[in-house]
Amino acid sequence: MAPTHDLTAMRLAAAVRTRELSPVEIVDHYLDRIERVNPQVGAFVTVTAELAREQARAAEKLVTGTADPAELPPLLGVPIPIKDLNMVAGVPMTFGSRTFHDLTGFADDNVVVLLREAGSVLTGKTTTPEFGLPCYTEGGVAPPARTPWDLTRSAGGSSGGAAAAVAAGLAPVAQGSDGGGSIRIPASACGLFGIKPTRGRVSQGPVIPDLFGLSTNGPIARTVRDAALLLDVMSGSMPGDLYAAPPVERTFLGYAERPPGRLRIARSADPIVPGAEVHPDVLAAYEDASRLLEELGHEVVDLPPVMGPEMVPHFELLWGVMATLTPVDPAREDMLQPLTRWLRERGNATSAPQLFQAHAALQGALRAAFPVMNEYDAILHPTLAQPPVPVGHFHDQEPEENFRRQKMFTPFTSAYNISGQPAVSVPLHWTDEGLPIGVMLAGRLGGEGTLISLSAQLEQARPWIARKPDIWDA
User: Please, what is the angle between helix 338-348 and helix 312-322, to 10°?
Assistant: First the structure.
C-alpha cells in the first residue's frame, strides 16, 4: 500500500471499514508527520495527540464490534483538523489572537458535532489569523502558515493552516471557513480544491453568529470527491440559524460521480476592486481553464458587467463591523494586531444607519445582478489576482497599506460572500516556478451540485492529485 498520507480521505475510510488499516495506525502516522513537518509549514496551532489517540482507539473498537461495515460512520478513523476559529469543547482556542491565549472551548460548534458523528478523529486546531480577518495567516499566536510549494510564500488565509496541513500531507482533508474568500484563497495558494457552500448550507452555530451571512464553513481537500463527502457530512441548518440553503436532489458525493452535461458558462477576469491588476500567470491559468471547458463541450461566453466597484466600500464597511463582533477584554486590547485594531476602530465608528445603508445598497446591487448571473450554470474567474506572495507581503505593512494590498490580491472572491452563492477554487495550473494557481467557479444559489459535477469533470480531464510539493516525501 502507498504511504498513509498518500491516500485520499475516502480511501482511508474504506481501509478502516475493511480493516486494511487501523484508525490507531492512521492517527500515529499523521501525528508523526505533524511533529516533523509542521514546524516548516505552520499548519497547526494546537495538536491534540492524546485526544486523537483516544478517539482512534474508540473507532477501532467500533470497527471490530460492527458486523456490517456499511453501518459504520462515513469518515470513521479519518483525521480531520478544525480551524482555530471554530470551538471544540475541552480544546484550547485562540481565534488566532493572543487575547484568547488562555481560552478553552466550552462547547462544540455544530460543524464539529457533525464531524464527530461522522467518525472523524481530531488531530488538532489549524492556524488562522486574528479573528480570521486577513487573507493571510500570520500573527502573534503561531508561526506563519506557508504554502508547501514554496516555504518562503504565504499559504493564504484565513484558512491558511488548514490548507497548509492538507497540501503538506499532515491531514487528508480539513474543515475551513470562508467570509471573504478564506477557503478559496488558501486552496489556490496551496494547490487544493476548496468549496464555499451556499449561504445557510452549513450552520455557523451555536457560538458564532451569522448576522451578515458572509461567512460559512466548508471543506478543503486534494480531490473533488473528498470535498464533496466532507460537505455532505458538514451540511445542515440548525435551530436558530438565520439562513437556510435550497435543498439538493442528491448527495454532493453523488454529484461528484455524475457528468455535469453541457453547461452554459460565463467568464470574467475583470476585478471589481479599482486598481487591481491580474498577473500574467493568473491570466494564463484563466485562459487555459476557458479552453479546457470548451474542449469538454461547454459553451463559454463573456460575462456582462454585473457587480461593480461601487460594492467595494459597502463590503469594507461590513468587514470593519464584523471585526468588532469578537468580544475583547479592554485590558487586553493592546495585545491585538495593528490591522485588527485599525479595522475595529473603523467598525466602532460606523453608525447603525450607515450599516443598514450598506446592507441596502448591496441588496439593491444583487437584485440587479442575479437575473443576469442566473442565465448561466457557472461563472469562471481567477481565484486570486496574483500567485502566492512572500510571507510578510501584507503583515509587515502599516494597516492601511496592508488592507489595500489584500484588496489587490483578492479582487474576485468576496463578491460571492456578498451574494451568498456557492463558489469553488479548482487547482488546474502551476507556474513555471512550480507555484499553484487556482481558478474559481461560482454557481447559482443552491448550485453546489453543478459546481461539484463540473469540477469532477475538470479533475478527470486534468488530474492534479499526482502533483505534490517536495516536502510531501519528508
Answer: 100
- Rounded to the nearest 10 degrees, how much is the dihedral formed by the CA atoms of 112, 114, 116, 120? -100
Predicted pLDDT of residue 72: 97
Q: Output the CA–CA distances (angstroms, integers) from residue 59 to 5, 65, 71, 444, in the order listed.
A: 19, 10, 13, 38
Q: Which residues contact 11 (CB under 8 A, 6 or more apart)?
A: none
For 118-167, the pLDDT digits (tens) are: 999 999 999 999 999 999 999 999 999 999 999 999 999 999 999 999 99
Q: Annotated catalytic sites, by residue?
A: 83, 158, 182
**The CA-based dihedral angle spanning residues 163, 167, 171, 172, taken in that order and rounded to the nearest 10 degrees:** 110
Give the amino acid at 445: L
- Phi and psi at 166, nearest 5°, equal -70, -45
Q: What is the grid cell recorded at 183?
A: 477557503
Assess contact for 159 and 67: CB atoms under 8 A.
no
How much is the pTM?
0.98
Contact 11, 21 (CB under 8 A): no
Q: How many C-beta neighbours within 10 Å does residue 205 have?
A: 18
CB atoms within 10 A of CB 215: 23
Helix (H, G, I), strand (E, B) or coil at 379: strand
What value does the CA radius of gyration of the chain take, rounded to a whole number of Å?
21
